[in-house]
Specification:
The structure holds 2 protein chains of 2 kinds. Chain A is an alpha/beta fold. Chain A contains 6 helices and 7 strands. Helices cover 32% and strands 22% of the residues of chain A. The N and C termini of chain A lie far apart (36 Å). By secondary structure, chain B is an alpha+beta fold. Chain B has 2 domains: 3-77, Ubiquitin-like (UB roll); 84-233, Alpha-Beta Plaits (2-Layer Sandwich), CATH 3.30.70.20. Helices cover 24% and strands 18% of the residues of chain B. In chain B, the strands form 3 sheets. Chain B has a 5-stranded mixed sheet, covered by helices on one side. A 3-stranded antiparallel sheet of chain B has the order 6-7-10. In chain B, strands 8-9 form a two-stranded antiparallel sheet. The longest helix of chain B has 17 residues, at 79-95. The two termini of chain B are 29 Å apart. The chains are: A alpha/beta, B alpha+beta. Chain A binds chain B through residues 81, 84, 87-91, 93-94, 96-97, 129, 131-132, 134-135, 139, 142-144, 146, 171-175, and chain B through 93, 97-103, 106-107, 112, 115-116, 121-124, 126-127, 129-131, 215. The structure holds iron/sulfur cluster (3 copies) and FE2/S2 (inorganic) cluster (FES).
Chain lengths: 175, 239
């Protein structure tokens, strides 16, 4: 049975996913061993049931992030906080010292060249704080780094494919 | 001076009377993690990373401020100590805003290195996301309170190596902060001689040379040690 793998992009810059794509030829081995059932790089709308492993990039920044995070936890065996934003809040959390209304005003109104207004139609409500995933659901593994180095990711996935404990065999680092 | 015999992690050693447990352990090649300790200035037990277990004493004691005694039995790396060390580190990270990815000290930071050595890959406490300012009023140096761990190294070198007494601590508990002169912008602090010793001593990204960007702050601690050696041992030439 192939491993059912998902990756999700919450409040992050996509850098962690870039580092994932940077796995080079290991991606070929990986493609044979996993089914990528949900990810920004595949066209699946809803998070499926019975997922074995999910890599979570980004901090929990808004109500949509929070909703999908709970769905992911309910439907996934192993959750990985993937990168510093998911692990610590990191760059996404830099805004946490500024009240949300002031922040939106500064960016979308004061900072606009013309027609400044705070957008809301169809957009999720920003949370008061951008927070790490572990503040809301149980996280099984943390792979920090901004982004996590590709060898850290490969070390982790390799252990997983070979049925060892889900942890990386490489030194981790923040930043 | 009389020698004391003691055991550290099962190893019989002898140390000079008046030596600290940290000195005795270092001498015997037994590493103890430290953060506020800095060669050349007195120890004050500010960070508690160097805690050790001593048989017969229920409290954990900081190795850097505890003096050796005859027959002491010391443990430096028990399960209990590792648990508390990791807790201390996590609390330090949660108390201020540490964003390594955009920090001047990324990759050369003693706090980071300690976190790695204690296996800290995440923080279990809620981050407090406090609002702290940056003081960039000084001509040459900057202070980012977001990264300060209140180790007091800067205060001690400023007073006891440079003798300027510019840096001080104000406030209590989590609100404590490093100030310059009578709580004025660093650039207006007349007593500062611009020697840069505080910047050399800082273990984190809190003090930096202006103009340095992400990961660029590497500290020259050898200079501090040289000055102290020169004074204490009259060695005026670097080897
Ligand atoms: S001071 Fe050290 S731990 Fe804090 S943000 Fe900078 S590099 Fe990271
Ligand atoms: S530059 Fe020198 S005098 Fe000025 S605050 Fe730092 S240690 Fe003190
Ligand atoms: S500024 Fe640096 S040296 Fe001074 S107390 Fe803070 S962390 Fe320590
Ligand atoms: S090194 Fe001993 S308390 Fe900080």
């Amino acid at each position: 049975m192939k491993i059912r793998l998902a990756t999700v992009w919450l409040g992050g810059c996509a850098g962690c996913h870039m580092s994932f794509l940077d796995l080079d030829e290991f991606l070929i081995d990986l493609a044979d061993a996993v089914d990528l059932v949900y990810s920004p790089v595949v066209d699946v709308k809803d998070y499926p049931e019975n997922v074995d492993l999910c890599l979570i990039e980004g901090a929990v920044c808004n109500e949509d992030n929070l909703e999908i995070l709970h769905k992911i936890r309910a439907r996934t065996k192993v959750l990985v906080s993937f990168g510093d934003c998911a692990v610590t809040g990191n760059v996404a959390g830099l805004r946490n010292v500024i009240p949300v209304n002031k922040l939106l005003q500064r960016i979308y109104v004061d900072g606009a060249d013309a027609n400044g207004c705070i957008p809301h139609d169809g957009l999720p409500q920003l949370s008061k704080l951008a927070r790490p995933a572990q503040d809301f659901v149980k996280i099984d593994v943390c792979l920090p780094g901004c982004p996590p180095q590709n060898k850290v990711i490969a070390g982790f996935l390799n252990n997983l494919l070979e049925g060892r404990k889900p942890e990386t065999n490489q030194k981790i680092k923040f930043g | 001076m009389a020698a004391k015999t003691l055991t550290i992690d099962g190893k019989q050693i002898s140390a000079e009377e008046g030596a600290t447990v940290l000195q005795a352990a270092t001498e015997a090649g037994i590493p103890i993690p430290t953060l506020c300790h800095l060669e050349g200035v007195y120890d004050m037990g500010a960070c508690r990373l160097c805690i050790v277990e001593i048989t017969g004493i229920p409290k954990l004691l900081p190795a850097c401020t505890t003096k050796v005694a005859e027959g002491m039995e010391i443990k430096t790396n028990s399960e209990r100590l590792r648990k508390y060390r990791r807790m201390i580190l996590e609390l330090l990270f949660a108390e201020r805003n540490h964003v390594c990815a955009v920090c001047v000290s990324n990759g050369h930071c003693e706090l980071q290195t300690l976190a790695y050595s204690q296996g800290m890959e995440h923080v279990r406490y809620d981050y407090t996301f406090p609002k702290w300012n940056l003081d960039t009023t000084h001509r040459l140096f900057g202070m980012d309170h977001n990264r300060c761990v209140l180790c007091n190294r800067c205060v001690r070198v400023c007073w006891h190596i440079e003798g300027a007494g510019t840096k001080n601590v104000s406030g209590r508990g989590a609100k404590s902060r490093i100030i310059t002169d009578l709580n004025m912008p660093w650039g207006d602090a007349d007593s500062c001689t611009e020697c840069g010793k505080c910047v050399m001593s800082c273990p984190t990204g809190a003090l930096f040379n202006k103009g340095s960007t992400v990961g660029e702050m590497e500290r020259d601690r050898d200079k501090l040690e040289f000055i102290v050696n020169a004074r204490e041992k009259k060695q005026w030439i670097a080897d």
